[in-house]
Amino acid sequence: MEYFNYINGEWVPAASGKTFQNVNPADTSDVIGSFPLSGPEDVDRAVKVAEEAGEEWARTPAPIRGNIIRHAADIFLRRKKEIAQVMTREMGKPLFETEGDVQEAIDTGYYAATEGRRLFGMNTPSELPDKMNLSFRMPVGTAGIITAWNFPIAVPSWKIFPALVAGNAVVFKPSEDSPLCANLFAEVLEEAGLPKGVFNVVHGDGTTGAALVDHPGTKVIAFTGSTEVGKKIGGRCGELNKKCSLEMGGKNGMIVMEDANLDLALEGVLWGAFGTSGQRCTATSRLILHKDIHDQFVEMLIEAAKKLRLGNGLDPNTDVGPIINEAQLRKIEYYVQVGQEEGARLVLGGKRATEGDLAKGWFFEPTIFVDVTPEMRIFQEEIFGPVLSVAKAESYEHAIALINNSQYGLSSSIYTQDVNRAFRAMRDIEAGITYINGPTIGAEAHMPFGGIKNTGNGHREGGWTVFDIFTEWKTVYVDFSGRLQRAQIDVEIT
Which residues contact 2 (CB under 8 A, 6 or more apart)? Predict the structure, then answer.
């Protein structure tokens, strides 16, 4: 089937006529469809349409904008199972995960809609008589949004819904590995009553994304993806003096202390490390075990991970779905080889799964390394697959040093029953997110989301903080004194 870009409320092919294919990673013989391989001409058309439609949209009262997003959340709720089926076929993760992905967009939509009545400014007293000082949040302008494939409804919703509620028009460039979900997003917003041209989808590859970043009509770029690409986007936006939000890589660690509930910690690491086949920016890729429970917990972990069922995500018995594509599978294989060459001990998995129907897709066994040390690449570099590196800690202080030994700082967790130690960890761990007695995954829509170091550039998505990305502050002074008043000159406060 052939799919198209969505520009000004119409479905249109790329100007060049070029396309690319989208295939099911669980069964590569299953071709989902062809999508436009768009170029700068298509981006230019979409941005110009968004600029024009955005002028009226920005003047629409924010509560009305929010109400349209609330309708969109209602539609996502109604279509939840249908969209989850499409998502599983398109990017592989099991249905229980894709339904959660859609639910996250529903939650985000309802939350963002309420902010249409809360886009608070701050008003303060003036230092001069008969004068008022006001401040307001204003739309930035057309937002260029670029996202990854692994959460093709949830992560776009973190950006698109707040951007629209804030009064910006949007041009969305989704990943070429999950393009159909972007078209479903457009369908939902159209049904919700969003005016034509306010939301546009342009499919394509990195060249398409670069054109969106470079276009003078996009005033803010919001990106989720690799650190390598994100830094390039950030650098380019710096050259253009363009507002930019970057959500990039992670190498998230979980600490299990000697007093932890080991059964609870086991459930957490299985979900954190192997949920979405480890293909999450918040996935648990480093496990730091206190020496007193290290051997026991490793044994428990191996036995439990052996029982995880790989398969097509449409099968309700599947625990772990496929890797997104062959290139990513080859990358995982490379890192498994690197880990062994560096001296880490492979105790489970380590190879592509090809038994039966698994041979049709890109499946990789849940993989565990032990005896991992901080200088090893598998401890430091993001793999983005079901590969867990286990290190041993001598003490709480050593565990904190290990978890902080990373260029990334997105998510983290610690399992302990010592309340004092838990609060110390909240303070001591260098990360944007810390879980106590939970895995490194499980963000909630109404809370800030983002990281430090090479994970991001200081912005936070989710909750109220995302509106800092998609609004600009405007300060207004109202002088009703009827005379010239010169601040700092006519009044001296001592």
Answer: 13, 19, 33, 34
